[in-house]
Amino acid sequence: MVQSSLDIQTIRKDFPILNRKVNGKPLVYLDNAATSQTPQQVIDAIVEYYHGYNANIHRGVHTLSQEATDAYEAARHKIQHHFSIAKSHEVILTSGTTHSINLVANGFSSFLKKGDEILVSAMEHHSNIVPWQMLCERTGGVLKVIPMNQNGELIMEEYHALLSEKTKLVFCNHVSNALGTINPIEEIIEAAHKVGAAVLIDGAQAAAHIKPDLQALDVDFYTVSAHKMCGPTGVGILYGKEEWLKKLPPYQGGGEMIEEVTFEKTTYADLPHKFEAGTPNICGGIAFGAALDYMNSIGFEAIAQYEDELIRYATDELLKIDGLRIYGTAAQKTSVISFNIEGIHPYDIGTILDKLGIAVRTGHHCAQPIMDFYQIPGTVRASFSFYNTKEEVDVLVEGVKRSKNMLA
Amino acid sequence: MTITEIQEEIVDEFSMFDDWMQRYEYMIELGKSLPLIEEQYKTDDNIIKGCQSKVWVHAELDNDKLVFTADSDAIITKGIIAILIRAFSNQKPQDIIDSDTEFIDEIGLKEHLSPTRANGLVSMVKQLKLYAIAYQTQLN
Known about the structure:
The complex is a heterodimer of chains A (408) and B (140). Chain A is α/β, with parallel strands linked by helices. In chain A, 39% of the residues lie in helices and 17% in strands.
């Protein structure tokens, strides 16, 4: 039974979209790993910005510009405190995780020499593989993969064996989007630092479930996308240790990132503006701050506990279905269940579930190497959030049974 | 039968059902009667791009008519391509080029017609028509 301190029915009232119907059925939204839904409090922050103080920031002397600048910088401070970051200028606001990763990968092209190695985990999203491949192509660096076992856990002995003085950067997601595995990032970071390698952790899937203390982790870089944690799309962060951000060259040229420009030479602005060329997603940044306020008002401990109960219940119920296999059975995992039913294509199940009002993701989840590892075309992925209920799990399980009857 | 007549026949068959489940079950049933593509043609070149599941289509001329065979690893997709092939196979390429696909809407599968839909019905129709254009050029 799911018992929790959270009052889910009250929480659900904060999310207007959860009232809608899809194909005549009440929406059961289980695609939270792709993007989370937006509470009224965040929608209000967006509306208030456009109603009240929409202006460009950091330049204007007029009142609106000052108000917008204050709100945007207040959001940066909220992000700083939420992730336990030492200095606010270590928070670079980006368009999201992909942008953040590319910023680091691009910067490392000035450090990497031929034969230097970058380690990435075997359970990465495509956006976490391609920038490093491009970096290696440019620099002659070598990309090496930390393998995983059948449960979807990284094989840590192999990781330690791969580390050497050639390793310049280790890249790994905190939580796998396709499998839900929580990776042992403390151990990964500590071991990498012993050989002098930097570590970039992609927190896109983790941040909605775990509140990481980035200083305690001693991680060099950490990335987050707001839209996976009740915020809007198109905004996220790159956290970087000050020493690294000072070393990295600017990523894009433009307004805001310069201190002085003549045709002979440009000097770059201080952090964080050096990496924030052009007019940023001002409203998005402010709404990201509102999303953090919202999630913290519920409390990450309560969220984690409730989601854990929910996923255990869902796992138990789904496994009662004959022929159903779950991919990603790590001891440490968050609210993702990736599964298939023997002999049925995941796309078929997803199509029938959609007719029943249930939103899941089907396909390779932009993590084709994982699918190749299990030798499957894809999976059905149900991913949960704190606003999902046990009753919705029951609807999912019934839907999967019904799909199986139709399709088998 | 002309393409229009076959399409009307399919629309008639689907009109017997009152809910989506029966329509989908019938579509899955139609998938089972799909003229299957020969294994040798199940190559990457014959896979239709834009589908989440794999769909292979092959076309060849039988006198002046174009004959399609296909397969898919997902059975709903197999049903969709079976319906399309039933409407367009054994027809003259020019007739295929001139035909439309509004009957898909009429049989209650409208949601599959969206160009962004991951099942790629639009890509399938486009591929069948591309074959027709290619063979029409050959006939000229």
